[in-house]
Amino acid sequence: MRPNRRNHSRPLNGLQKERTGIPGFDEITLGGLPAGRPTLVCGSAGAGKTLFAMEFLVRGATLYNQPGVFISFEESNEELTTNVASLGFDLNQLIVDKKLVLDYVFIERSEIEETGEYDLEGLFLRLGHAIDSIGAKRIVLDTLEALFSALPNEAIIRAELRRLFRWLKEKGVTALITCERGEGKLTRYGLEEYVADCVILLDNRVENQISTRRMRIVKYRGTSHGTNEYPFLIDEKGFSVVPITSLGLSHPAPTEYISSGIARLDTMLDGKGFYRGSSILVSGTAGTGKSTIGAHFVESACARGERALFFAF
Amino acid sequence: MRPNRRNHSRPLNGLQKERTGIPGFDEITLGGLPAGRPTLVCGSAGAGKTLFAMEFLVRGATLYNQPGVFISFEESNEELTTNVASLGFDLNQLIVDKKLVLDYVFIERSEIEETGEYDLEGLFLRLGHAIDSIGAKRIVLDTLEALFSALPNEAIIRAELRRLFRWLKEKGVTALITCERGEGKLTRYGLEEYVADCVILLDNRVENQISTRRMRIVKYRGTSHGTNEYPFLIDEKGFSVVPITSLGLSHPAPTEYISSGIARLDTMLDGKGFYRGSSILVSGTAGTGKSTIGAHFVESACARGERALFFAF
Amino acid sequence: MRPNRRNHSRPLNGLQKERTGIPGFDEITLGGLPAGRPTLVCGSAGAGKTLFAMEFLVRGATLYNQPGVFISFEESNEELTTNVASLGFDLNQLIVDKKLVLDYVFIERSEIEETGEYDLEGLFLRLGHAIDSIGAKRIVLDTLEALFSALPNEAIIRAELRRLFRWLKEKGVTALITCERGEGKLTRYGLEEYVADCVILLDNRVENQISTRRMRIVKYRGTSHGTNEYPFLIDEKGFSVVPITSLGLSHPAPTEYISSGIARLDTMLDGKGFYRGSSILVSGTAGTGKSTIGAHFVESACARGERALFFAF
Amino acid sequence: MRPNRRNHSRPLNGLQKERTGIPGFDEITLGGLPAGRPTLVCGSAGAGKTLFAMEFLVRGATLYNQPGVFISFEESNEELTTNVASLGFDLNQLIVDKKLVLDYVFIERSEIEETGEYDLEGLFLRLGHAIDSIGAKRIVLDTLEALFSALPNEAIIRAELRRLFRWLKEKGVTALITCERGEGKLTRYGLEEYVADCVILLDNRVENQISTRRMRIVKYRGTSHGTNEYPFLIDEKGFSVVPITSLGLSHPAPTEYISSGIARLDTMLDGKGFYRGSSILVSGTAGTGKSTIGAHFVESACARGERALFFAF
Amino acid sequence: MRPNRRNHSRPLNGLQKERTGIPGFDEITLGGLPAGRPTLVCGSAGAGKTLFAMEFLVRGATLYNQPGVFISFEESNEELTTNVASLGFDLNQLIVDKKLVLDYVFIERSEIEETGEYDLEGLFLRLGHAIDSIGAKRIVLDTLEALFSALPNEAIIRAELRRLFRWLKEKGVTALITCERGEGKLTRYGLEEYVADCVILLDNRVENQISTRRMRIVKYRGTSHGTNEYPFLIDEKGFSVVPITSLGLSHPAPTEYISSGIARLDTMLDGKGFYRGSSILVSGTAGTGKSTIGAHFVESACARGERALFFAF
Amino acid sequence: MRPNRRNHSRPLNGLQKERTGIPGFDEITLGGLPAGRPTLVCGSAGAGKTLFAMEFLVRGATLYNQPGVFISFEESNEELTTNVASLGFDLNQLIVDKKLVLDYVFIERSEIEETGEYDLEGLFLRLGHAIDSIGAKRIVLDTLEALFSALPNEAIIRAELRRLFRWLKEKGVTALITCERGEGKLTRYGLEEYVADCVILLDNRVENQISTRRMRIVKYRGTSHGTNEYPFLIDEKGFSVVPITSLGLSHPAPTEYISSGIARLDTMLDGKGFYRGSSILVSGTAGTGKSTIGAHFVESACARGERALFFAF
Predict the structure, then answer these.
(1) pLDDT value at residue D116
(2) Which of B119, B5, B18 has its CA nearest to residue B68?
């Protein structure tokens, strides 16, 4: 007996969440990303990190009226705008509407060579200015490695990562930071995921020559969440994650009939034929007329002016 | 014949243990964590190390009247409080009641760069003060790497680890120290587990896109313990470990009957129908009426005002 | 409901693409390589990187009237010309026609030892001159490692890679840069693929002593693309990729008949024999005459003056 | 024909062995550990190295009148005493009886930093004193890494290992030295096992969530030995190894009968029923009464006042 | 439609090839090694690299009248001569006939220590002299690592490799350079295969305790070639590679008969018995006389004075 | 047709071999080790390297009248003598007879630290003296790593290995040098096997908890040899290798009969019973009397005074 445990299943009350507006994702995370905290999105090249981050900003601006800032270290503003046009996002309009700021930070080789690293303080100034200019509530940094790859060792990386996260939390913005996968590790240095409050892994595995996109919430401090790997799609409407639990048992039972194309068979089927929408298995040994039944069915569909597909092997 | 061996199975008398109050865990460890000694909890990001450690403190304070100290190097007091609210823990009340101290130690980059490492002596002072302030019996350090990642080599890490453990033992507190997994190793440096008296591994493997949480007692000096991998859950009531041995053979034989929904079938079944709670397999070739029997059964349940689930494939 | 999403599937409008003229490849990429941007082609030795890059230039010059520049760090102009002759490419004629410039850059050991690296600025000058001399629209650099292997660390490589890509984009040329695979990584340093806009992997795996060439579009910013692994061939006509989707269901139903070689069997088959182009399965236990039927069929074909293949096991 | 070979299988005469008193182990090693030589015991954390070493000393002191010395670099005397109490060992009594010396050597960080390594000569002095104080014949060093982790390279480690082993041999003591496993290697440096005369591997693999303890004699110069992996147990009586060869074919044939619980079945079985101790397989299709026969059997056992287990699936 | 593609399959015209005279190899490579270019032969110890290289020279000298030079860094002239005698090669006669030069270059430790590497210029002088002395057309360097293992980093190795290959090409000789395999890589440094025009891998895998020699053409610039793994043999006549394609369907149909040894069976078989050269399957349940039929067959063969093998299991 | 190939299979004439006297090994190597050349024996700890090397010397001294020298860097003369006594080798007598010299070379840490390596010249002097003192024809160095582990890099190791091998060849002795396995490599540095003329691998794999000793001739310059893995044994008579080819088809057909123990069955078997030495399969469904027939057979054997084994499952 454990007297101090509460026996009623009350709603979670600690952590505030920010909806991303990405279908499926908010279901898996039971509400979205942790509000006012930074989240890591890691994945290999081509996994969709930048698109995920950008959709987070665009949905925030358009659905939830939260302005956003995108700090890019690799793609120029023009390139970014072009690249996300395929998802139907019109960044220029959002910028005009003061809903979005794109800031492309180009780090010169000389900056790395002279100081041994890019200066975080300078970034904070620039970032703060961008946030304040539109009252941003969401921010993306793409990508962590551009900032941190010149740091000399793991202890320093850990300390600077903590400093960056601290600064973002104090600013009160919900942040998304992309980072690259290491060899056999979630992240390049294998420590970023320990410091972060929330870690999302985007994966694009090739198995038997077929590639499949999958997402996993590796870690999410302060909340329950779906822990499995979920398939996701990127199409012309953006991201969509397919949580298993959202596959509802909601198909209505069929009530309409459709002729089998064979009168006597229809007669045997209560005089009505097949239920529309049902799957019919025709079984029999070679030569007993399976293909012929199928052909009758298809032909009758065509005769009614309907379209039909006939697959023969 | 071995004359010096004691032939009677007497109770273990050497090591004192401290109950954690976590369901299942105290069964696996035959009593809890080693009292007055440090224990390592290792696991990858998102494995639940911090939650396990915090539940150890909260249960100690509420169930066993043992005040506790939580030293955090990554999460601020506010964040910690928020993050464990989802488990139903009210840290603020415990702090007010002098049952808990949260201490957030933020290590600056400059500290690492100047001294090459964070100073353990300073930590001991701060830690000693926190312990004494509420007469703490339990302590958590979250996480080892924050302290040790700047140490220059394995020999130094080993020596400092020994020093830290020695200090904790002299203080007489039961300590829990979280540490991160290395690549293909239990711990980051692969030596922490040799120095520790007790090592617990939290795991969150993904197999076939499904994630499962498992716990293992890797090592526990001075006692027998369960050595297998045990599944565990984290839900709104906290941790619960499922030791195999706790699955008792305690189901009572069913004595009540329930109608099959088909009068003649009930007659064949001694006039009573199925045993309530039993599993009925209906077997037959296609078209012999299996689905129909199931439908009758479900319908009769509904007719009695009971709820029924009907799965059709 | 997501009000901001466009419900109609409109054509992609952001990114311009440049057709390669390589059969199958333009289908997979929905139009070719990203126009005015650099693309990485990575693969192990013998994967076909150089041939792919050269075909990109030759097809551009001959099919799309786009002059091209090939910068080689490993093969001299004569060697290159010889090596691609097997694909039927006549580079000398293209050079005479001002459609192609070959430039062989030989990096001396002393250049590496003195400066620690090959000077990118010098390359830009030389490259710019080659581009301007024929108004090139396409450019190939073969291979990245020849330029970058002397760079001291990952942060510098990342910065220089960004500089090279930036320069190429400003020049407005569609660039193809070959790079070598690392151990268990796509690229030698494991970061090139993150910086690039488009990454193509050529693979030549040996499984069960059989080698198969496969291609994969690892990443393509700003567009949808086929993401699976596609087999490809290199033969005397160059590359050809076999996208699964291009296998059309376009076979006409057979209407001609061909004698089985056995009069009574033809009679049973409506007096006509087999459909020409169909596959006939002759089944029966040992000794029932399967081989004999096959032999009759083959013999009758020969008697008609047709050629036949008879495989016996 | 090989004339110089001795054709008779005479007993081994070269190497003297020291019985450990651990059940099963002395059978596998054909007599115990090499007398007057050092043996390595390697294994990962929690494998049971310290317990094995301590049982070697305790059995030596109590069964064979050989005093022993335990040099610990990690556990204090009090901790060691507590930790092995669970095996039923009373170290304090052995110390009072001058049968055992525990010596806890704590290596400070400063010792490592100043000299680059712990001084072996100092250890020899301290060790020699402990041995002479009780005329010890057995000695344990727990653990090698505590001594050697600060050595700068493999050549030095090899030389120092040779020096340590040489010193122990000259002292004439039978030594057991524990050492940690490396990644994918038997030992941390991968060379300790080459220098040692005898190497024992303790393993604690987890397969399918079940952990099993296994022991292997990797190497034993100068003698034949069992070479397979042998399961072993650690329980409240200490270690016990299960050599396959000790599973004798010594079951007596059953001669007593036990009723099947069904009179007519007993009649069919010569009027006597089953042999006591035999396994009865009852086979039949569903519904033919298999469970009923089992239930009769169990019921008749209970009726006779015997206890019975009935497993139903 | 691709207008610029040539529709006729014309012979390759670019690259000249040099026949090796090794059976099977010239078929796989469609003509031999690239004339006037260097080729890498890589493989692990015992793979047959030196033998392959030597047979290339010996066949060149004896079959194609091309004198050759063998530069050895590991085996003296006497040793080489002895080692290839098992293949039936008489090197001394070839040397007397001015068809072969053996040059053993012994690199002293001091040369490596003083200059950090062996001087390539000195090698070129020595090599040029050997080539000119007999007008050599073929050359072997055995082995690359002897020259390059002292080079300080990958960029230098790459540059020097390019310089060596350039020098060889300018000399116009067809060169074969052996090199060692790295761990999980084709070559020791993992870059040699990128610089080379042609790369041959010799393999000697052990699977299920059986070793099999296999060869693969990893890369061959400027030509098509067999890309699979081909088994090969080394016997007293040298190398022979077994290309799958050389297994012709050229067996003539058998026309001769041979008695089954059983008169009545012969009668059933048209009075003639079996076709000589055919495989007869005798099938039946145990005890139906299968072995007896086989024994009759064998006995009758022996009675005719023929030799027979009878395998019984 | 290849005119220059010799069509007759003449005996190998190049390389001289020295018989080891180890049963099976001389068959696999077609005559033993390469005379006057060094051979590497590599294997992990406990593989039997030292025993193999010592048997090579002992057999040489006793069977072939070739005195031998054993240079040990790890085991003292007394230890070696003790360790091989289990194989029935009396080293002391061989030493008295001037057939063997044991020389234990102990390398001090100071020698490594001062000179960075053990001096090879000093070893040559000492080795030369030992060889000359008894006119040794065979020599063993146990083990390479003791000499070479202090060398600073691969280029130096390669050069020194070449120097050592050169010196041994000039001395004209047949040498055996033991060396340790590396991680995933045949040897510690992965280059020793390339420099050596002959490489033997001893293996002691554990599969499914069962260990098996296997030997493989990885490389043998100048001769054909068995290339598979061969199981071998170490017992009280020394090594014996089991080449597959030595399992001759030489069993005589059985001619003697043995009663089945059942008179009527013997009658059915021509009145004689089973052939002695044959395997009898008794097949039947459960309860048809299989065990009973076996029991009769065994009982009749016992009745004849013969011993019988009856395995029942």
Answers:
(1) 62
(2) B18
The lowest-confidence range among A142-146, C47-51, F252-256 is F252-256
Distance CA E145, CA E72 (A): 12
Q: Which residues contact D280 (CB under 8 A, 6 or more apart)?
A: D274
Pairwise CB contact (< 8 Å): E221 & C74:
no
CA nearest F93: which of D1, D10, F85? F85
Nearest-by-Cβ selection for F211 from D6, D163, D228: D228
Q: Please tell me which residue of chain B has the smallest CA distance to A231.
A: B209
Judge B/C contact: 3 or more CB pairs < 8 A. no
pLDDT band at residue D155 using 50, 70 and 90 as cut-offs = confident
CA B135 to chain centre: 26
Close Cβ partners of D207 (under 8 Å, ≥ 6 residues apart):
none
Measured CA to CA, the distance from residue D55 to residue D176 in angstroms comes to 11
| Residue B111, C-beta contacts closer than 8 angstroms, at least 6 positions apart | B118, B119
Q: Which tens digit of pLDDT belongs to each residue from F108-158?
A: 887 777 666 667 888 999 999 999 999 999 999 999 998 888 888 888 899
Beta-carbon separation of F156 and E109 below 8 A: yes
The one-letter amino acid at C222: G
The distance of C240 to chain A (nearest Cα, Å) reads 17
Residues of F in contact with E74 (CB under 8 A): 162, 194-195
Would you call F255 helix, strand, or coil by DSSP? Answer: coil
Residue E222 tokens read as: 């400027």
Q: Dihedrals φ, ψ of C129, to 5°?
A: -65, -45
A140 pairs with which residues across the strands? A70, A176
| Nearest Cβ partner for C206 among E153, E194, E216 | E216
Residue A162 to residue D278: CA distance in whole angstroms: 68
To the nearest 10°, report the CA torsion of A259, A260, A264, A269.
-80
- Where in chain C does DSSP place strands (E)? 17-18, 33-34, 38-43, 68-72, 100-104, 138-142, 174-180, 198-207, 210-220, 229-235, 238-241, 257-258, 274-275
The span from the CA of C100 to the CA of C135, in Å, is 10
Which of C57, C127, C43, C125 lies closest to C97, judged by CA? C57
Q: Tokens in use for B51?
A: 């939650």
Q: Does E160 touch chain C (CB under 8 A)?
A: yes
0.90 exceeded by pTM: no
Q: Report, in angstroms and rounded to the nearest whole number, the Rg of chain D calculated over CA atoms.
A: 27
Tokens, residue D40: 């390595």
- At B253-279, the pLDDT tens digits run 678 889 999 999 999 888 888 988 888
User: How far separated are the first and last CA of chain A, in Å rounded?
Assistant: 64
SS3 assignment for E117-185? CCCHHHHHHHHHHHHHHHCCCEEEEECHHHHHCCCCCHHHHHHHHHHHHHHHHHHCCEEEEEEECECCE
Nearest Cα of chain D lies from the Cα of B144 at a distance, in angstroms, of 18
DSSP annotation string for C195-253: H-SEEEEEEEEEETTEEEEEEEEEEETTS----SEEEEEEETTEEEE--GGG----PPP
Which residue from F minimizes the CA distance to E81? F14
Which residues fall within 8 angstroms of residue F30, CB to CB, at 6 or more apart? Answer: F12, F17, F223, F224, F225, F226
Report ipTM for this prediction. 0.81
Residue F71 tokens read as 């240079």
- Token output for C192: 């090139």
D156 touching B (Cβ < 8 Å) = no
Helix-, strand-, coil-residue percentages of chain F, each rounded to 5: 35, 20, 45
Backbone phi, then psi, for F121, in 5-degree steps?
-60, -40
E218–C45 C-beta distance less than 8 A: yes
Out of C3, C199, C230, whose CB is closest to A46? C199
What is the DSSP code string of E188-242?
SSS-HHHH-SEEEEEEEEEETTEEEEEEEEEEETTS----SEEEEEEETTEEEE-
